[in-house]
Amino acid sequence: MENHVTVGVDGSPESLAAARWAAREAVLRQVPLRLVHAVDWPLDPVFPGLGRQDVDRWADQALTEAAQELHGRYPNLEITTRCLAARPAAALAAEAADAGLLVLGSRGLGGLVGFIVGSVAMSTLVATDAPVVLVRAADDPDGSGADSGAEVVVGVDIHEACDRVLAFAFEEAARRDCPLRAVHGWKMPAAYSYVPFFDPDNERDIGKSVTHMVDDMLLPWQHKFPDVNVSHNVFMGSAGEHLVRASKGAGLVVVGRHLRRSPLGVHLGSVAHAVLHHAPAPVAVIAHD
Questions:
Q1: Which residue did the predictor score with more confidence, 82 or 206?
Q2: What pLDDT is recorded for position 109?
Q3: How many CB atoms lie within 10 A of CB 54?
Q4: What is the pTM of this model?
Q5: What does the alpha-carbon distance between residue 232 and residue 251 come to, in Å, rounded to a whole number?
Q6: Is 39 helix (H, G, I), strand (E, B) or coil?
Q7: Lower CB count within 10 Å: N or C terminus of the chain?
């Protein structure tokens, strides 16, 4: 059952920021928090003389220290820890299977095995269907694990069925009692590049039509969450660029990714990729059909 929040912990500042963010989210959801550390064994030979007991002791210490800090901040929060001997991405994806949310630090070295958390996070993202939030240490400058209560920003695509993305965004805004801003970027049809005399009215008409479509997409969710203050921005141009701009000052940015898999593997998509690499706020990636 999706009755807890899971967070990857490796002792780095990024993972501690993620743990604080996850703890606050667990409190908002009124569910337990699970701290997970994965050790890829055997270790890389660049760590000569380092034994299994040393690694296990270090991992237990990292988990214990994180749990103790979070207990101090949230004494009523139920916190459990797990230390797994497995590749981090595979272990975290498996742990996410029965969690309502997986939270990861987005950068920094991953424990003693030299993994970069960014690459682990990226591998984990495409290996799980669960919602995943990436948090940077910069998202937690005062060590409080809390954002400022700023708005939730969600990227919407009028050409896709993104109910899971909108459901997550509206639920988060409702939990945080904060505004929700939907962002959509659109482009003129390719055929217009061959029109010798382009009528600017066409661009305005298409923009109005797109805006109405965004309104129609949001309307059912506004009825379901009447207390959420919703606004939207519809721009002509790159959706990723506009989402990155909108993310400045946001408490959370929500984007979708397709569940479809190709012979070349799973891809996040250009919008999610741009937001993950450039947004200054925590980013939630929601898998959808």
A1: 82
A2: 38
A3: 13
A4: 0.86
A5: 16
A6: strand
A7: N
